[in-house]
Structures are given as structure tokens and as C-alpha cells.
Design goal:
Helix content is about 55%, strand content about 0%. The chain contains four helices and no strands. The radius of gyration is 19 Å and the shape is elongated.
């Protein structure tokens, strides 16, 4: 582990102190999330960086209200329809 220094607004300082490893994990996972979102790193790479397994990271994000799959219901139904059509085609 390394210490880093970042500039943040004064009013944000009180929210950056963590009391335990669990809070540190959440903070660090949230720092990595934009890089997952813009596809710089994968969930698996983020989990590796954090020292946890991918399923634990997905679970952590889920508890924070961040879904692994961000499809709308319509997009999911469309994907299912495409898969069904492909499966029904003769080989």
C-alpha cells in the first residue's frame, strides 16, 4: 500500500476519513468505479487491485446500488429474443 495526496474541497474532508478496512474497501472501490465504467479496467482487474474476488466486488457495488448489468428491461428482452431466434435456427 502507498499513501497518496489529493486535493479536495475543504467541506469534503470530513467524509474521507475511514474508520476500518471495510470503509477503506468501499472508498477504494468507488475510486476505481469510473475506470470500470469507461472501460479502462474490467471488474476483474478492479477486484485484483483491491485484493478481493470479482464476485465480492460485484456484491459490494450491488449493495451500493450500482448494478453489474445496466441494461434496460427492453434491452434485456431484446437480447433474450435474439438468443432464442439463434437457438431455433437449424444447425
Amino acid at each position: 500500500m502507498q499513501d497518496v495526496s489529493i486535493k479536495i474541497p475543504d467541506s469534503m474532508v470530513e467524509y474521507t476519513a475511514v474508520q476500518n478496512e471495510s470503509e477503506a474497501l468501499v472508498r477504494n472501490a468507488m475510486i476505481l468505479y469510473p475506470y470500470i465504467q469507461n472501460e479502462t479496467i474490467s471488474h476483474g482487474k478492479a477486484a485484483q487491485i483491491l485484493g478481493i474476488n470479482k464476485l465480492d466486488l460485484l456484491s459490494l457495488y450491488s449493495t451500493l446500488g450500482i448494478p453489474y448489468l445496466d441494461q434496460t428491461k427492453e434491452e434485456l428482452e431484446n437480447d433474450i429474443s435474439v438468443i432464442r431466434n439463434l437457438r431455433s435456427r437449424p444447425a
